[in-house]
Design a protein that fits this description.
about 325 residues, alpha/beta, Elastase, domain 1, Neutral Protease, domain 2, two-stranded antiparallel sheet, globular, binds zinc ion
């Protein structure tokens, strides 16, 4: 399969996202191209990020290859697609080989990154609290996983389904980060976005946006609850996601090994199950993972035990077991 990837980068000279020239380039596996522009003079720049060579295209083309954000966004996006294919047999975000687009240098000093329903967008950060959002590869894994969720469970973006939506993005972003480095669950740092923090945040002692191992820790820029008794009614999805995040951390570290081998497969099977719906809440998702742990690893009871205990420890016990 050929993964079609294209970067549509928006010139920093524009104050906001604007449509760029339609310069469409088919990219073969292993190639890396970025389309940047048009700039103020109406010139479109095409980068071949690997060789620096010219590639066939329509439109006016000029080579540079100096944009590190474009390189990072492209390389990491390609790696996320590889990760989903190798670990879970998934063919791109939609499982049908969709082209993955990214806009970089979005806005002016924009402090976020997001999946807009059809593509990725990254801000450069304000340079104080945040830096370039392409710097942490788990952030790129997080955003693309919003696309995967959109094409599978389609989780709503409020209340428990919203928090689950955010959580599965943190979980697969973390697994992707570990997979790229071939880390075990014990070697992993379990931090979300450590490399997007700017000097002001670092000076204040923050080391990450969120931490799956310790969601409420003071080193998190956005501390979260890690137990269901502390669930925040009407809370932002990025807050309550700490509860299922911590459940995954507990499951993966109890099971041991590498997160994508067992715990990740259980979470992926739950997310992509026909039973996962937009309204799926924490209890529903916990039940799905308990069931997929049993069906995927019928002889490895350690997997079911790790998953079951993890949810129980964050306050979501198996409803079928009387306590
Ligand atoms: Zn998100």
């Amino acid at each position: 399969m050929t993964v079609l990837l294209q970067l549509q980068a928006v010139s920093k000279h524009y104050g906001a996202l604007k449509a760029v020239d339609n310069v469409n380039v088919a990219v073969d596996d292993g190639e890396a191209l970025a389309v940047i522009g048009p700039n103020g003079a109406g010139k479109t720049t095409l980068f071949n990020l690997i060789t620096g060579d010219a590639a066939a295209t329509t439109g006016r083309v000029e080579f540079d290859g100096s944009d590190m954000t474009a390189r990072r966004a492209f390389d990491t996006t390609h790696a996320v697609i590889d990760f989903y294919r190798e670990c879970f047999g998934r063919n791109s975000v939609d499982d049908a080989g969709m082209t993955v687009m990214s806009s970089i240098h979005y806005g002016v000093r924009y402090d976020n990154a997001f999946w807009n329903g059809s593509q990725m967008t990254y801000g450069d950060g304000d340079g104080r609290v945040f830096t370039d959002f392409t710097r942490s590869d788990d952030v790129i894994g997080h955003e693309l996983t919003h696309g995967v969720t959109q094409f599978t469970a389609g989780l709503d973006y409020s209340d428990e389904p919203g928090a689950l939506n955010e959580s599965v993005s943190d979980v697969f972003g973390a697994i992707f980060h570990q997979w790229r480095r071939k880390q075990t669950v014990a070697q992993a740092d379990w931090l979300v976005g450590p490399d997007v923090l700017g000097p002001v945040a670092v000076e204040k002692g923050y080391t990450c946006l969120r931490d799956l191992a310790a969601p409420g820790s003071r080193h998190c820029l956005s501390p979260q609850p890690s137990h269901y008794r502390d669930y925040l009614p009407q809370g932002d999805p990025h807050e309550n996601s700490g509860i299922p995040n911590h459940a995954f951390y507990l499951a993966a570290t109890t099971i041991g090994g590498q997160a994508w081998e067992k715990a990740g497969k259980v979470w992926y099977a739950a997310l992509t199950s026909d039973k996962a719906q937009p309204s799926t809440n924490f209890g529903d998702f916990a039940s799905l993972t308990r069931a997929t742990a049993k069906s995927l690893f019928p002889r490895d009871t350690n997997v079911y035990r790790g998953v079951d205990e993890a949810w129980t420890r964050v306050g979501i016990p198996d409803p079928d077991i009387a306590v």
